[in-house]
Amino acid sequence: MALLDVSAFLVAVALFGLARWQRERRAARWQHIVTSRLAGEWTMQAAIDPDDELYAPYWNRVIWPKLTRFSVRMAKRLTPANVRRELDQKLKLAGSKQTAEAFFMMRVLIALTALLVSATLAFLLPSLSLAERCLAPLVVMIAVYLFPAIHLNTRAERRLQEIDRDLPEVFDLLSVSVEAGLAFDAALRKVVGRLSGATRDEFSRVLGDMQLGIPRAQSLAQLAQRTRSAPLRRFAGLVAQSDRTGGGIGAALKIQARDIKAYRAARARERAAALPIKILMPMVMFIFPAMFVIILGPAVVSVVRTFHL
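That's the Type II secretion system protein F sequence above. Prediction below.
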């Protein structure tokens, strides 16, 4: 009965909004016609202006902006400023254009929806106990709430790995282009045309910042801050130093290309050295028990048969 009441209320609200939108659209159309006639420019095309904001759907003009403002206010009240800044940085690192407030409200709405659906299903199943009916929706809600954050961290980590993987090629191409006589902006534009994926997006943003008048050292520093990449941080420092001292950027690019290759080799050696420690736990849990069963199993069976245990 309560569900029917809620459905009837939502239908009434939708009909009221549709009627209000039609009245506003009719009034705007007549106002446009009267204004055009007074100006002596009225035609049949002047009566209908599809680019006018008042002719946009009621959802886009009224409901969606109100929902957006409400979500921003709720997100600012429920989350601290440092959490929003960190979330916004993760969204930028993952390549998402969504704001931190919209992402937070999306997580909350999805979690509440999952809670309602799981609670309804739990109470409709007679085989579940009371504790299971109360705990299952909470577990589902927590899992659904945490999943977007885990997915965001995974996307950001993969994007950072993709950028780090493409950096040696980027610096080699930049070094060759600058040594061939191109300016840094032209060389970067040429390199961006050969890239793809996340690396292309980030360096295209750097190129756009430089075209807007931001110094190249500051643009590269912002790139390093967005991606949290140690090689890019060092490269931004080298570019800033070459700008201050007046040195050539080609030498800095050569040094950076050599350093990043050495950095990747050191990372590979570090990961290879950590493999024995990482593989120790799977061996103890899965491989050693099977080996003990195969080696000691026949001996245990013989001892049991000998002593009639």
